[in-house]
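step: validate -> pass
step: tokenize input -> pass
step: predict -> running
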Amino acid sequence: MENLLVTGGAGFIGGNFVQYMADKYPNYHIYNLDVLTYAGDLTKHQKIENGKNYSFVRLDIADRQAISELFKQIDFTYIVHFAAESHVDRSITEPEIFIRTNVLGTQVLLDAAKRSTIKKFVHVSTDEVYGELDFDPTTFFTETTPLQPSSPYSASKASSDLLVRAYYETYGLPVNITRCSNNYGPYHFPEKLIPLTISRVLNDQKVPVYGDGKNVRDWLHVLDHCSAIDLVLHSGEIGEVYNIGGHNEQTNLEVVRTIIETLGKSHDLIEFVEDRLGHDKRYAIDPTKIEQLGWRPVYDFETGIAQTIDWFMENKEWWQQIISGEYQQYFNRQYARK
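step: predict -> pass
step: emit ->
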């Protein structure tokens, strides 16, 4: 039995990864570690929460003593580290929270991993650590692009990336770093652009768009991201960085308009608002390195966004309980008595 620790497994990407791995590797025992901040949602794991090969552990990754005790109790084979504060707007108003979780929390995990016998520590990062690109469609982020973060969020992620690299160089810890473009798909927390737009359009509410809406993002379906991390976990060369992108560049305004048109609503729902501080112009990833490892995305944006809209329409109860805050009571009902 392989013991897989997934940090941040109650979040959007980590949660999808937990489900993906549970389906693909029934011989793995998956430990989902999450502190359950406002963005942590356990309702997505109802189908597996009582399984013999799944355990939920409520811990703060920055709690050194608690993490140390966990590693004494369980001999982890692999660690995939998603846990992070990730909302850029929140990092602008409360940067200290991001430093504590994303930097100190990662260092605590690295220390615990260093004292263990793990085969691989995969640190899941973001293309935002590279800063921004101009609008030249021939330019892309590669694994050798210098780190030039623009927000407290991306600065905290860049810091954690450097710590992971340092633990590989100094201690020989078997690591990989992955840097992904913007994810979307099922269970996307409703504060982010795509789920926010879908939920607001379905409720005939205004959709805020920063600035002129021309900022460009490379969109990656979350299940494509999960398959890429799986590949890096098992086949990535130790010490290497792998960029994961979807070849799906869209402006924010194009994304919003696509959702509005798909749902048969009026563009009058679009409301341009004051631009965000430090708002990067464009992100775009060259995924050649991971493609050479054998990965290809399954979803183009047209197919993926249609599937995502359908999912949100079919699962209104899920995102409505997120917006209302009811999801935060699920842990108390299901886990507090265990």
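step: describe -> The radius of gyration is 19 Å.
step: cleanup -> pass
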